[in-house]
Write a structure and sequence with these properties.
Layout lengths: L4 E5 L1 H10 L6 E6 L10 H11 L7 E6 L1 H9 L4 H13 L9 H16 L3 H6 L4 E10 L8 H17 L8 E8 L14 E6 L4 H8 L19 E3 L17 E5 L27 E6 L1 H6 L10 H4 L2 H28 L6 E3 L1
Parallel strand pairs: 1-10, 2-3, 2-8, 3-4, 5-6, 8-9
Antiparallel strand pairs: 1-9, 4-5, 4-7
């Protein structure tokens, strides 16, 4: 078993890995999950994957994410993904807030972080990328969930949560999935029927707003109106697709999924519902790569970062802890590169 990585593969992925190993040209889809600061535990792994694995890519690679996952994948879709990741990492860690910041204050900080991630040329590089196809998941709100008043919005969230206990399909009463696709290319995701879904072209005019909307956590950030899109208020795509338990489309290639956990939770409201986890048929060709329990134990507090860190630590304490997480995360990237170089990765893969 690998010391720092947990490697889990569906049966189709396991068969391909045994035949060929992990090759960038065999990957069809890279998903990116919601999770806020949890992404920092993947920083070293992301740099290893995004910096080397796809450097000789020619055919389209579909990158689909919600919330912080879409921001990570927006780094991969730039000309120099490792530099974009490092800009993102530095700006994200350096967040500082007054006590109990308003959604407007948090949204303003998110806007600054995204500006750092994109740099001067990021928007054009993403839109014109020769092979990366970015797909950004957002949630178009209905009823009280679209309100900015805290108590009204809380009512909308409560109604969502109550209906979701019975069925995820009830989310369609309050939310509509809207995916922004590079150059209007819906890729393998056009046939989704689990919930009402629309696809809109991702353009230079709406890219930044779509990314901001995809990460706009209810009650924490302000809702977003996206130019040229359906009228209304957009919020965090992770409310609908938290860890992306979805049909990744037809094909024989891999779904390469760097993830914080060795399991997948379908929606934001499913977090406390331990009986609701990913459908195995959606992950037959997926390779899930997550931190090992041993690596997590080495992190500050023995845990992956999360949004409670803003409440339980001072800014300086949190920044020190998060920088330590990033340093520890490099063990994941180093180990992956070693397994790829020696051809031993498949020896450490377990069935998903």
């Amino acid at each position: 078993m690998a010391a720092n990585l947990t490697l889990l593969a569906g049966p189709d992925a396991l068969r391909l890995l045994r035949e060929r190993g992990l090759r960038g040209e065999d990957v069809d889809v890279v998903p990116g999950a919601s999770g806020g600061p949890k992404w920092l535990v993947l920083a070293g792994l992301d740099r290893a994957l995004f910096g080397d694995l796809f450097k000789d890519r020619i055919r389209p690679l579909h990158l689909i994410g919600s919330s912080i996952g879409s921001w990570r994948l927006a780094c991969l879709a730039q000309k120099d993904p490792v530099s974009a990741l490092r800009r993102f990492e530095a700006a994200y860690i350096d967040q500082r807030y007054p006590p109990k910041p308003s959604p407007a204050v948090v949204s303003e900080m998110s806007d600054r972080i995204l500006d750092a991630l994109l740099g001067d040329e990021g928007v054009e590089e993403i839109i014109r990328h020769p092979w990366a196809r970015l797909h950004i998941i957002t949630a178009l709100c209905r009823g009280p969930l679209a309100a900015e008043h805290r108590h009204v919005q809380m009512l909308g969230l409560t109604l969502c949560a109550m209906g979701n206990v019975l069925s995820r399909r009830s989310l369609s009463l309050h939310l509509r999935r809207v995916i922004f696709d590079t150059a209007g290319d819906t890729g393998p995701f056009a046939a989704w029927r689990d919930l009402p879904s629309d696809h809109l072209p991702l353009t230079a005019q709406n890219l930044k707003a779509a990314l901001i909307a995809s990460g706009s956590i209810p009650l924490v950030l302000s809702g977003v109106r996206i130019p040229g899109a359906h009228p209304g208020v957009y919020r965090d795509g992770g409310v609908i697709d938290y860890h992306l338990d979805m049909n990744f489309g037809p094909g024989e290639g891999l779904v390469l999924y760097p993830h914080f956990y060795p399991y997948v939770v379908p929606g934001w409201f499913d977090k406390p519902l331990r009986w609701r986890r990913a459908r195995p048929e959606n992950f037959r060709r997926a390779l899930l790569i997550s931190p090992s329990a041993a690596l997590v134990a080495k992190l500050p507090g023995g845990k992956i970062p999360d949004r409670t860190d803003f409440e339980t630590m001072t800014d300086n304490e949190r920044i020190r802890a998060w920088n330590k997480v990033v340093i520890e995360s490099e063990r994941m990237g180093d180990e992956l590169q070693e397994l790829l170089a020696t051809g031993r990765l498949v020896d450490h893969v377990r069935p998903l």
